[in-house]
């Protein structure tokens, strides 16, 4: 065993995936793996089978007295190019000689055997040539036949019920006779001569063959499914001389031989089935995937060189493998392109590994699982989503304080237009959604230092007592912009010490905000009461944080991100109808009537002002989207629906024909007597 | 719990302090969901139950005026009153990126039906009920006040002109097919003016889910889900998947004890675009396929390819996040009506756990993790195999066995250690029954998941003699 490499066939780990590093699967082997490999580790019987099969197929010249499997082994072991034995060379030579014989094999099949790379090309080719094919099913079960017919019809070919000249392909489950006179090997030639001599025999050969087949049920089993031709050849072996003998005896009477003579292609049913499987990837459900095919092909190629790659011999294959890594994988997925999981991950992929992962995401490694970014049960107050993190009450205070600072910082940053993503991300990660909003509303409403330590629950941001006097002197129109102004102002001052600003938004306006925004079902969450700029800022923050929830292995947790998004939106759309009303009620209770009236009037004024502003903003803010009819993205909905293209579609009656037919049925039934 | 807690302190509940807080939280939730790409919480008709016709925002007013002007003839038939909701997805920005998954987009207006008297109005259940027997006591005074000529309201669904005719056709066709189905919002009529298509549906007074779900007792749930499942049963019987079962699409009026299923914008017929999925094979065949698969041969994955040229699996995933069934997340190519049952199960879970939403998932990956957290790795793996996929994770919070739903509910309602000495307050018998039903709905295997029809036979939904009627009325009045 001078070979540096263990033959793949005897290496249980040869069955590695296109997507994983062989090394890794060795290192970190979980118990499940080991268990699994016990059952899968052995080279599948099919592979061994292939050795035999291939030999019998490829070397029909050899008299069956040498055990082919033994041959295979010899061959494999001496795989090192420098030590190619004379025997090997002979084999290769024999293979070369044989090649003409293989012309019987269709072109399509050849390609498929070549290599995985060409599998797609093969499919394309097959699809193109199939419509010209006319199949005749010579034998095989009805079931299989029906299934195949469906498939070949789908590919454009047709089936001929009776054998005729029109047939181009004969499908059989019986052994396929060798091609006429094209086999250079003496043994076959001689036997051919033999059989020619015995032509006029009366025994129906197909019957004989069939009976021998049924006596050997294993023959049509699933083994050797890796190549199209294999099983049939396998069946040849046990027949040995005898079978061959019989077959040859009666050649001309047999449909198969007739077909040969007429230059038709003879395919084993199994071969056709396998072709179909490859053509219809998923649908046949037979579980033979590309990867499967490929792998087996290549394993074959490595172990039994004659088969897989007729041109390249073993040495070349091995060299290539050393350079490019194991070739038993989809070449498009080279090993270096594998992204290994480092942190906790979730990975869902199809069992056949023919498709992109269905989902995959990796989260940053954390020391404690509670710190993990993925959704997990959190202990949160009643009523809240159990998967969304929430800090406990005492910590909340702290968080809030930090939150304000964060906001200031962030705002400053945003204003300076310095994209300091890290900070933003960090900040957003540190803070749960609720405090964000609370704090923000506090910062908005009440500039006093005190508010920083007051929990939202205690401090009522709408409490008129706190600054109703101030409010009264403020012009009401301010209400619309103060959200921004106040926060910006505060931001600048906050660095040293938070200074209460006199130019604070009035509570009442805020309360009004809530009423208004609750009555306005505003698209996009862009609600009244927040200036566009503030919104813009928020959006920027969000954009920075969004690593892309949909992206593979995105580091940024979309989970948190959305929380923040939610929070900021909440901020802009704070109050529910109910809440707003509650607050108003509070005001009513606490303020003397005249003041309340004043407030109400002011509120009305503000509301109107805001409505106007709102409308303007709405107009300024085009709604981008996608038009299914024009199959076009657009920047501005209003603009798009007036565009020529869209109008053209809209006014073309044909587009609406089907719908109109239904609409006519939907006409409201009129009442007779009215 | 519902029963025990609320019978102890009946009325104060919604006036006390945490009411406010809860409300605010829900607001957060509502908003965050609106951000979602293909879904939003503001379903159609998201307006609350109160008829706040008087306050109409100027922008809405303007929008309605424009609509009336551009759509000729609509003024004669309907008087638009207010905008009461948005159909699928509000945020266009998101749509652009993900248009395939989005449903029909629409705006819904409440309108007065000016020509009600001119037509046959088979759709008008309320009218029928009113003529059959006296109106419910609560509403009596009001109805009487209106007399015979009281205004009739309808919901006008303005489907965005950017929706393709075939999509609109699909929705209307399904609605038309579902005419006369129990608890399904009937289609009154629909018409078109160039590219603008409008569907007219009855206007249903209803209460916002968020206002009552926390207060529901088990009998309330039974009534609620009986209504929902009878709607589902009739929809499913026609071979139609609603695809977007969630509280906002089931308009429920607690005091009338009736709900209607709305928004068929994502609905489809079973088998549309479907391709064989392993979940429809026999279990034996499936096992063969799985054990002989590439993935099984390859052993566990250690990474994923960087530049993956393979095609991605395509499957309809339309729906609302948090309510998507596992098979939708696994991109099963042969989805059935059972996906709606799962969503309904999520609704029940929400109510039982008193947490809305229960699943917060921003996307499918998170949805998967959330579901896996509950059900555990082993069952998720089995579920994945059902659809020809491999579920692999090493997220530490996803345990091998997961949790029993009963535990989750105890935990969610803080009853696992709320009793004396931190004991758990066990579920009552009727709650246990609800959980048993929940388990049937939240069955990972769609083949084993209860069907709507079977559900109606389940002990939880089976109609029984009305013994606890009085209690219920109290509960509902409280709302």
TrEMBL record, chain A:
Q: Which SUPFAM superfamilies match?
A: BRCT domain
Q: Which organism is it from?
A: Hyphodiscus hymeniophilus
Annotated Low complexity bias: 7-25
Q: Which PANTHER family match?
A: ACTIVATOR OF S-PHASE KINASE-RELATED, PROTEIN CHIFFON
A molecular function (GO) term? protein serine/threonine kinase activator activity
Q: Where is the composition biased (Polar residues)?
A: 77-86, 188-205, 448-459, 469-482
Q: Which domain of life is it from?
A: Eukaryota
Matching InterPro entries: BRCT_dom_sf (IPR036420), DBF4_BRCT (IPR055116), Regulatory_Dfp1/Him1 (IPR013939), Replication_Regulatory_Kinase (IPR051590), Znf_DBF (IPR006572), Znf_DBF_sf (IPR038545)
Query: Does the keyword field hold Nucleus?
Result: no
Question: Which residue intervals make up region (Disordered)?
Answer: 1-50, 62-115, 174-250, 399-482, 517-628
DBF4-type domain location is 620-669
Q: Which UniProt keywords apply?
A: Metal-binding, Zinc, Zinc-finger
Q: Which GO terms describe its biological process?
A: positive regulation of nuclear cell cycle DNA replication; regulation of cell cycle phase transition
The record's GO CC annotations read: Dbf4-dependent protein kinase complex
Gene3D superfamilies on file = BRCT domain, DBF zinc finger
Ranges of compositional bias, category Basic and acidic residues = 87-100, 399-415, 530-543, 568-586, 598-623
Record-given protein name: Hsk1-interacting molecule 1
Q: Name one Pfam family in it.
A: zf-DBF
TrEMBL record, chain B:
**Gene3D superfamilies per UniProt:** Phosphorylase Kinase, domain 1 (3.30.200.20), Transferase(Phosphotransferase) domain 1 (1.10.510.10)
Keyword annotations from UniProtKB, A to Z: ATP-binding, Kinase, Nucleotide-binding, Serine/threonine-protein kinase, Transferase
- Segments carrying the region annotation (Disordered) are 1-53, 289-318
Q: Which PROSITE patterns match?
A: PROTEIN_KINASE_DOM, PROTEIN_KINASE_ST
* Top-rank taxon: Eukaryota
What sequence ranges are listed for the domain Protein kinase? 94-461
Task: Indicate yes or no for the key word Kinase.
Answer: yes
- InterPro entries from the UniProt entry: Kinase-like_dom_sf, Prot_kinase_dom, Ser/Thr_kinase_AS
**EC number(s) on record?**
2.7.11.1
Q: Which GO BP annotation is one of this protein's?
A: mitotic DNA damage checkpoint signaling
Protein name (database record): non-specific serine/threonine protein kinase
